[in-house]
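User: Can you fold this complex?
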Amino acid sequence: MAVAPLAGRRVLDLGALCAQRPHALAASMAARLCAGYGAEVVRPLPSGGEPFAATPPLLPDGGSALDRFLNAGKRQGATTGRFDVAIGDRASLAAHAEEVPVKARISVFGPGEEDPPMTELGLMALSGLFGIVGEAPPAPPARLAGHQVSYSAGLAACMALLAALLAGGEEVVDVSLLDVAAWLNWKVAAGVMVMGSAPVRGGARVTWFTVPAKDGHMALVYQDKDWPPLRDLIGDPRLRDDPRFATGPARGANRAALLEVIGPWFAARTRAEITAAAQAKRVPLGPVKWPVELLDDAQYRARGFLAPDGMPALPVGWDGQRLTLEGNRADAG
Amino acid sequence: MPGDAALPLAGIRVVDLGWITAGAASSTLLLDLGADVVKVEGPGAPDPFRRWDGAEPGSDWWNRSPFFNFTNRGKHSLCLDLKDPRGREALLRLLEGADVLVENFRRGVMAAFGLDIAMLRQRFPRLVIASISSQGETGPDRDMVSFGSTLEATAGLAALTGAGEAPVITGRDVNYPDQVVCLFAAGAICAALLERGRTGQGAHLDLSQRELTSFLLGEELIAAAAGAPSPRRGNADPAEPEERLVADGAGWRVEWPGGSAPVRDGVALAAAEDFARGTAVLRSPDGTPAKGIPFRFANRTLAVQDSCHDLGTDNRAVLAAAGFAPEEITALEAAGVLATAPRGG
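Assistant: Here's the predicted assembly.
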């Protein structure tokens, strides 16, 4: 029997009927995960058609890669019929899912509060997740690529509705886009609340960043215990003798000077050469890879993670198998 | 208003070998959903989060790490030496009554403990085993050493992130893949419990943080495979062309048609009313801030129900509940297989 935890369950994906894009993306992701777990997912469309049909990134054939990714394994259909789960925003659920026993409701702030007009970057800004990422001021903060805030809310919604299905009976799951983003960013909030000071973007203790290599960039990521092997790998005596590089805080405070020493070493080597050398010493450096490079990645290929059209599998191996989207369109439905 | 219906995972028993965030905070979500969670740490290998910033030097520093206590509130604490055959045997007895095992050790460590996954699957066919790792259980890079931000690089997120000329990683204050994997892993565990209800079979869940990070850029992978460019767009969102990032005094502000938001730093976040009304950070019964719960239920109250237990506090209670006689427990204590402090602490 194929693994399909949600086999026989019908999910109403109201993502296309959500009034705002962050809600629509979150609901669509939660429903996408349900499809991955074997549910029959029905996605009703508004009169204007699929709202993501023209949303970037666009494909050479004029279609939307976002549409293709988020709506894989779903089928269009009406809001009528029996459903086990409905996922949407407050208004779409009230209009179309009154009788559905398990509902996942996406909002900005949570139950009982109005949804103001909101964007994903706005949510990232309010949660602190924008302000903490990027180079030190006066450089601007850096937005996490893609739809991380909305997709994370979709992950949270999916987890909660799976739990509600385990419990049986009726439940309404409320997922606040802001709460999820702030939950992801807990070290910043907890820094203030339990340590008395918050980490700041590009602060002096930041010693992790990307460094240009011969054919791209490397992520310089290491802990204090990794510094001696990393220093010895690069082999410049100044890294050992200069007090500006002796401790993590010192290296953070003297980043420009550090880059002057290590920059040429990185620039003279390929990402693969640097990665192999660092990994041989168990130092957690890694290459910055572009999406197109991942299509031919040996690890992903060995694990059957990406289909030839770039479609990623649900990112879990299940007793060594991948769950597939085939067979869950519930021809039986 | 939320009622008193049993929480969804009431009666589910979790053995938590998880470390730092990816493993430990996934188990915390299961706890918040009603599961009974026993966190197992060896006296020679406590959760590294116990040795973190702010762990005050003192007689029991291992019980004073703010981030450890924030993350692990409410779990039973069992300090058991898995390298000792008696400790391994005790863990196996504990697993007889368990529904879920969570681990995020370096690949190969479970097998080194004599706890290889194939043996566990055979011996405990109803057990759901969640292995959270950087690269997954298999493949040529399975032993690659990574932190969260390494995976942002190798998964495609860093290449597409950054407002300047260089790709950007979130760094140790976010370590994004470590955070987001908890949401997916806890969901996958719930799915596996549903599947167990359907088939009677547990499962081994092989969760690669790198794969999840790439999955969350799925549209970019599909675009790349079709030959469409996937450039670094900085702070521009092609779907929100009228959105702007503008300077606002010493900071920044995001503006869009119909609204705007300040770019908050940690101090502004912690002081914000919308944050305080939310659930991202909650309070333990002892009043200390605690890791929150990223959703609510309308019919059930979700709350942080217990504070953080000191290391090994629950040694006797956990083993007694697993059927150990008092003299067996005393013998394990005398042999140092059970402990309440790290070795050399």
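The CA atoms of residues 69 and 308 of chain B lie 5 Å apart. Chain B has 14 helices and twelve strands.
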